[in-house]
Amino acid sequence: MRLSPDRPLGKVLRFFVEGLLWASLKGGLRGVYLRGELPKEAVVLTMNHHSFYDGHLVWLLGRLARRRISLLVAEENLRAFPVLSLAGALPAGRVREALRRLRRGEWVALFPEGSMGYPGALGPLRPGAGWLARKAGVRVLPVAARVAFRGFAHPEAFLWVGPPLAPEEDLASYLGTLLAELDGLLAQTHPRAAPEGFREVVRGRRSLEERVRPWVEALKRL
């Protein structure tokens, strides 16, 4: 039986699954930082894929935009964890359903590289994002993501949202350039500072010394 997020049981389970996603972001990352504006229109969201948290971050972007978002995933992943469908996961083979969701104003997301890769330059892209966008009459939203350990005990996630692109535009060139610019900006930013133009959208787990520092400062004033 396919779980529906609109039925009473589905709503309860969806609340539980999304709570787990939120707890994972808050507990596993020091923070999530965002640059750029999320559009109000339906889009095919595309993001590079190199970390465990990428699916969580796609879900978060939909939440921040106040849009229902579906992430296309391998069917075997949903067979193993069917409740993920309640948080928006959709088998990659259900193309017609993805088009229906786009046409009714929802977002559909995918990782155009097709699989998780090492956190380096963007890999070769598959053509599915442009095809979906063209068939649904929507644009493609490029998002460069980097989850990195810097100057703290826990990793941080950085999301750089580019402007929506027409389906026929060169996504590989644009997303590759955006990712390279993100990596360059991180490289020239102090490891304990937020990169220029980024704002914190999720405050996560702080290092021990960050938690202790207010007490140390208070003792200094005695």
Layout of helices and strands, plus pairs?
Elements: H1 8-28, E1 31-35, E2 43-47, H2 54-65, E3 69-73, H3 75-80, E4 89-91, H4 95-103, E5 107-110, H5 128-136, E6 139-148, E7 156-161, H6 171-187, E8 199-203, H7 208-220
Parallel strand pairs: 1-7, 2-5, 2-6, 3-4, 3-5
Antiparallel strand pairs: 1-8, 6-7
Helix pairs in contact: 1-2, 4-5
Walk me through the structure.
The structure is a single chain. The protein has an eight-stranded mixed sheet with strand order 4-3-5-2-6-7-1-8, sandwiched between helices. The longest helix has 21 residues, at 8-28. The chain has helices at 8-28, 54-65, 75-80, 95-103, 128-136, 171-187, 208-220, and strands at 31-35, 43-47, 69-73, 89-91, 107-110, 139-148, 156-161, 199-203. It starts with 7 loop residues before the first helix and ends with a helix. The chain has seven helices and eight strands, in the order αββαβαβαβαββαβα. It has one domain: 3-Layer(aba) Sandwich (Glycerol-3-phosphate (1)-acyltransferase). With 222 residues, the chain is α/β, with parallel strands linked by helices.
Identify the overall geometry: globular
Counting helices, strands and paired strands, the structural category is: alpha/beta
**Helix content bin:** 25-40%
Q: According to CATH, what is the class?
A: Alpha Beta
Q: Report the CATH superfamily.
A: Glycerol-3-phosphate (1)-acyltransferase
Cα gyration radius (Å): 19 Å
Widest beta sheet: strand line-up: 4-3-5-2-6-7-1-8
Secondary structure: number of strands: 8
Distance between the termini: 64 Å
Low-confidence stretches: none
Q: Into which percentage range does the β-strand content fall?
A: 15-25%
